[in-house]
Design a protein that fits this description.
alpha+beta, six-stranded mixed beta sheet, 11 helices, 32 strands, about 25% strand, globular
């Protein structure tokens, strides 16, 4: 069936958004979908975003978490789940998307809520993401019962920093939620650019010129995502070329809320009020509202932060303090966008040699230092790649104060006497990614300006070197480049290399590596992996490849073929040099110890 609509879905760390457009229209008219969700027991309201929180209710007493499409449910997602995080944090899942990108855990195992008591039934990061997407699918189905989601063009966004494993896990959650197998993955910063292109139309060429460098700085609730786009000329027209993507940085608006909560807790302490753990979590959520209120363009000079009391002696059952707009702006600007030099690097502070296991949150909250490190990774002279323009995205940058601070720091780094300019016409920072994803889907069918880029990392397979064995030591490993940076979707290449021995008929571990900074490596380049800091290892694949009966040795001599599908899926084929055998290795993370792969 031909798709009637394109759906743009922003599966966000703290909020998820759905936008859509009719594919039959001659021009794209993208709209936001209102998402019904619980805001309290038995209370459903429509919101323009779905809070990316999942609350797992206890069996007794049963809470009323019914939805029009789901009766008797023992969990909920959305705004009520976010609110329950303040009261029952041990039963509430947040930042599931960040867990999807963290290779330090088995992301298909029930580990969330992280470190919750043993008597609480947990779910995996993949299932948590699936539940958010199932809610979005149900919302669409209720609004458009005659246009099944599985028949539509769906564009799902992922952070630019997501590697192949994280993208595959996101796709797995999407398919389990009922999205079509042909769904398209688009990087979030690129989606934000498409949203800007949709707002400005052909006038975008008046804002950017050949040689310009656009930094997309996306600071959301839980993460910071950086992308550098160059403006080039091709056949007499301007084109956008994605040149670099940053690492997955776990620092964002949630850190700011916690910082403000720390300040307010100090003010409570000065009044002789010591907050218990329950109140501290509640305060964190209250400070999110305070931050957004005070930093708004028309925000008040002061804001009162209140926390429900836990003692009958407290008058009115609450405790309150007043925070000042100017003080909050200074606190957050200096703490998260500090002035620094372009050669500065993020500080790796540790309070102790022992650290609690969990997500690798950034120890340095200075986003400007992370931007400096990102630019420094692109050139030996980072001032030469300092952006000429910035596209702000994410709820944090709704604050003009924070936009102005980042621009000021970037201008301090410029050596050409020019100033870095914000792109004009950007209005909806909360929903831009979903709106841009839907716009991208529309122009994918009808035509329009596209961002060139391909894959945002180079990928490598680990090749064990031949040689004498040493007791207790593994043989050295080399890294063979099989996907070059920027390889386009819908293309395939034969990897030039000597034949490699492929283990078949018995369990084997296949190791993969990636790099966001090694952009010059070509297919077939063989690197001594060692402790190369420019290579990061992805989750290894444990597999038993079907036995090739025509080969008597435990190794089949193979060469590699790489394919990036139109959907952006990475396929690595191992082609036998002695028979017609072919084996496909995919970036899947399995909960089983091993997996049978087809030949």
């Amino acid at each position: 069936m031909t798709a009637q609509y394109v759906l743009g879905i922003d599966l966000g760390t703290t909020n998820s958004v759905l936008a859509y457009a009719s594919l039959d229209d001659d021009a794209p008219h993208v709209e936001l979908m209102k998402i019904p969700q619980l805001t309290d027991e038995n209370t459903i309201e429509n919101r323009t975003s779905l809070a990316s929180f999942c609350y797992l209710a206890p069996n007794k007493p049963k809470e009323k978490l019914n939805l029009p499409w789901a009766a008797g449910r023992t969990y909920c997602v959305g705004e009520f789940a976010r609110r329950r995080a303040a009261e029952r944090p041990e039963r509430t899942i947040s930042a599931a998307k960040s867990w999807l990108s963290y290779g330090g855990v088995d992301r298909r195992s029930p580990i969330l809520p992280w470190q919750a008591p043993a008597d609480i039934e947990k779910i995996s990061p993949v299932v948590a993401a699936q539940r958010y997407l199932e809610h979005i699918v149900a919302t669409w189905t209720a609004a458009f019962p005659d246009a099944a989601v599985a028949d539509q063009l769906v564009v799902l966004t992922v952070p630019a920093s997501f590697d192949a494993v994280a993208r595959e896990l996101t796709r797995e959650a999407a398919l389990a939620a009922g999205l079509p197998a042909e769904l398209v993955l688009v990087e979030e910063p690129q989606a934000a650019v498409y949203s800007w292109l949709a707002e400005t139309g052909d006038a975008w060429r008046k804002s950017l010129a050949v040689g310009d460098r656009l930094l997309v700085c996306d600071v959301g609730g839980g993460t910071t995502d950086l992308t550098l786009i160059g403006i080039e000329e091709q056949d007499g027209d301007l084109v956008l070329d994605r040149r670099a993507v940053g690492n997955h940085l776990l620092v964002g608006g949630d850190n700011m809320d916690l910082t403000l909560a720390h300040l307010v807790a100090g003010q409570f302490a000065e009044q002789g009020v010591e907050l218990d753990p329950w109140q501290a979590v509640s305060l964190w959520h209250s400070c999110r509202t305070a931050k957004e209120t005070l930093l708004a363009d028309d925000g008040p000079d002061t804001h009162t932060v209140s926390v429900l009391g836990r003692s009958s002696k407290l008058i009115g059952g609450t405790v309150s303090v007043t925070v000042n707009r100017a003080n909050v702006a200074e606190l957050l600007a200096d703490g998260f966008l500090p002035r620094c030099e372009i050669g500065d690097a993020p500080q790796r502070r540790r309070a102790s040699g022992f650290q609690e296991l969990g997500l690798p949150f950034e120890s340095d909250t200075g986003i400007t230092r992370h931007v400096a490190a990102f630019l420094s990774a692109q050139s030996e002279d980072p001032a030469k790649v300092c952006p000429t323009h910035v596209l702000f995205n994410g709820g944090v940058f709704k604050s003009e104060t924070l936009q102005t601070r980042l621009l000021s720091v970037l201008n301090d780094w410029r050596e050409d006497g020019e100033t870095t300019q914000p792109l004009p016409g950007v209005r909806d920072l909360d929903h831009a990614v979903a709106l841009g994803a839907a716009h991208y889907g529309w122009i994918k069918k009808h035509g329009g300006i596209r961002i060139r880029g391909g894959v945002g990392r180079s990928y490598y397979v680990g090749i064990e070197t031949a040689g004498l064995a040493i007791p207790g030591a593994q043989r050295p490993l080399q890294a063979l480049c099989v996907v070059p940076f920027g390889m386009e979707e819908g293309t395939e290449i034969d990897i030039p290399s000597k034949e490699i021995g492929l283990v078949h008929g018995e369990p084997a571990e296949f190791r993969f590596f990636s790099s966001a900074v090694r952009k010059e490596d070509k297919p077939g380049d063989l690197l001594p992996q060692g402790n190369d800091s420019e290579l990061s290892e992805t989750t290894p694949l444990l597999a038993t490849l079907p036995l090739d009966e025509s080969v008597s040795e435990p190794y089949v001599p193979v060469t590699f073929q790489t394919r990036i599908t139109e959907l952006g899926v990475f396929e690595l084929w191992c082609v036998s040099g002695q028979s017609d055998g072919r084996w496909k290795l995919e970036f899947n993370v399995r909960s089983d110890d091993e997996e049978e792969l087809g030949g």
